[in-house]
């Protein structure tokens, strides 16, 4: 497969051309990557008017993902989520969304003045668990006529919803299904594909950088072949509405190289990694260690089973020279990819196996999901005057910009909702001391 963006940058870097254009580093600097870091010079195409090397590279990604078109984002899924919601909504601004949304959804809702109705899953789960049942979607669709249903699958904890059934329901009710698939770019390369587009979603975003070997910020907006055709024509406009006019060529080049990487037997490497991680999980299971039933590249351990405090758990991993994706008071999340070596996986396994288990003692876990009352619209809350107050003083006040633990950047209370006592205790439980509230 040709890698047109990377090839262009390589040739330009080798040419010795005197750069009288942006950026100011002129191709020189300590990072070493400056030589490939250019702007829209002659021949370099333009992400938001692509008809040259960027279009050719996106066409390669389009073929790999089997979409009507796959658009590049150099500003993560965060940008693709805003664009996707802009594309789905016109006069009808109603969105049915599975509750545990990433913060970027809240900002998109504020910018687009969306009328969001949340669909709730299991109330006793972790607040970042975004699983939603087809039955809950069906019930919501009977009550509302949304422009789209929006779900997050997989979520930060690796939980997957039944995208196929939810897509069928959406289409039965004549609405679109949008999926935040930030954590699941690789799902397309399992056999069979478990990618949302293959399962019937109309649009989805993938953070290439989360699971594929791509630079931070590299992401896709995918539009399905089954989706209305005009979405593809409008997509670049929707992206550029929210994006910087200086998308990073380094990030685009890494997406470009990623196409060739995927074509070159990625599915086989992925399969091997999935079975190596499965082997690790089996060894943990044999030793009585439990883990969540997640998408195949995550290992998520409930911490209540270990006889260690949170900070001792973290120190233990540190001593084993292991850095997890996230640890909060409930779970430790480890993200694996084919770029992890077999030795690293062994180290992960032996470090977990050496942690003492508690003897069945139950620890208190907080109520997971709460259903705060909406007082004003998301847009009004995000754009009104606000102040920062201690969590204890926030009870009875209205949430302004969402205050989140990052990761997972999933708000416990969404902008415009009232913060009650339960919300305040969840904030404290997850280490949040201050929140933004309306004045
Ligand atoms: C579920 C989810 N959606 C969206 C995003 C935003 O992705 P990005 O960092 O690529 O902008 C994240 C980031 O962690 C996420 O976890």
Topology-level CATH name of the largest domain:
Aspartate Aminotransferase, domain 2
Main structural class: alpha/beta
Bound molecules: pyridoxal-5'-phosphate
Chain-averaged pLDDT: 96
CATH superfamily of the largest domain: Type I PLP-dependent aspartate aminotransferase-like (Major domain)
Number of domains: 3
CATH architecture of the largest domain: 3-Layer(aba) Sandwich
Order of helices and strands: HHEHEHEHEHEEHEHHHEHEEHHEHE
Count of strand segments: 12
Classify the helix fraction into a percent range. 25-40%
Task: Return the CATH class of the largest domain.
Answer: Alpha Beta
Side-by-side strand order of the widest sheet: 1-7-6-5-4-2-3
Strand content: 5-15%
Molecular shape: globular
Main β-sheet description: 7 strands, mixed
Contiguous uncertain segments of 5+ residues: none
Radius of gyration: 22 Å
Distance between the termini: 56 Å
Number of helices: 14
Quick take:
The chain has 439 residues and is an alpha/beta fold. It has 14 helices and twelve strands. The chain folds into three domains: 260 residues, Type I PLP-dependent aspartate aminotransferase-like (Major domain) (Aspartate Aminotransferase, domain 2, 3-Layer(aba) Sandwich); 88 residues, Aspartate Aminotransferase, domain 1, CATH 3.90.1150; 61 residues, Molybdopterin biosynthesis moea protein, domain 2.
């Amino acid at each position: 497969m040709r890698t047109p963006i990377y090839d262009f940058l390589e040739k330009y870097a080798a040419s010795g051309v005197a750069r009288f254009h942006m950026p100011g580093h002129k191709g020189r600097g300590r990072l070493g990557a400056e030589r490939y870091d250019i702007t829209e010079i002659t021949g370099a195409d333009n992400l938001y008017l692509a008809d040259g090397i960027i279009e050719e590279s996106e066409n390669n990604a389009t073929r790999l993902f089997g979409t009507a078109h796959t658009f590049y984002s150099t500003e993560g899924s965060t940008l693709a989520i805003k664009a996707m919601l802009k594309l789905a909504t016109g006069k009808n601004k109603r969105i049915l969304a599975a509750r545990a949304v990433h913060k970027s959804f809240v900002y998109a809702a504020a910018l687009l003045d969306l009328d969001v109705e949340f669909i709730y899953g299991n109330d006793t789960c972790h607040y970042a668990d975004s699983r939603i049942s087809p039955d809950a979607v069906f019930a919501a669709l009977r009550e509302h006529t949304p422009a789209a249903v929006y779900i997050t699958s997989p979520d930060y904890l690796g939980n997957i919803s039944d995208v196929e059934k939810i897509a069928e329901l959406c289409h039965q009710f004549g609405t679109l299904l949008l999926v935040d698939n930030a954590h699941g770019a690789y799902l397309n390369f399992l056999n069979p594909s478990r990618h949302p587009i293959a399962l019937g979603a109309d649009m989805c975003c993938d953070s290439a950088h989360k699971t594929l070997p791509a630079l931070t910020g590299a992401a896709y907006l995918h539009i399905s072949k089954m989706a209305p055709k005009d979405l593809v024509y409008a997509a670049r406009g929707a992206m550029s509405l929210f994006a910087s006019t200086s998308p990073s060529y380094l990030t685009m080049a890494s997406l470009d190289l990623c196409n060739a990487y995927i074509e070159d037997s990625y599915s086989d490497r992925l399969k091997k990694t999935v079975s190596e991680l499965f082997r690790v999980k089996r060894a943990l299971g044999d030793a009585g260690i439990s883990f969540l039933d997640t998408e195949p590249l995550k290992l998520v351990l409930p911490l209540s089973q270990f006889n260690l405090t949170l900070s001792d758990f973290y120190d233990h991993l540190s001593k084993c020279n292991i850095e997890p994706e996230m640890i909060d008071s409930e779970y430790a999340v480890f993200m694996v990819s084919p770029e992890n070596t077999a030795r690293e996986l062994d180290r992960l396994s032996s470090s977990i196996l050496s942690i003492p288990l508690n003897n069945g003692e139950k620890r208190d876990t907080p109520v997971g999901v709460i259903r705060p009352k909406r007082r004003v619209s998301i847009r009004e809350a995000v754009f009104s005057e606000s102040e920062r107050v201690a969590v204890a003083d926030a009870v009875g006040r209205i949430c302004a910009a969402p205050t989140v633990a990052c990761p997972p950047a999933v708000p416990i209370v969404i902008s415009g909702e009232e913060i009650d006592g339960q919300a305040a205790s969840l904030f404290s439980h997850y280490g949040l001391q201050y929140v933004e509230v309306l004045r």
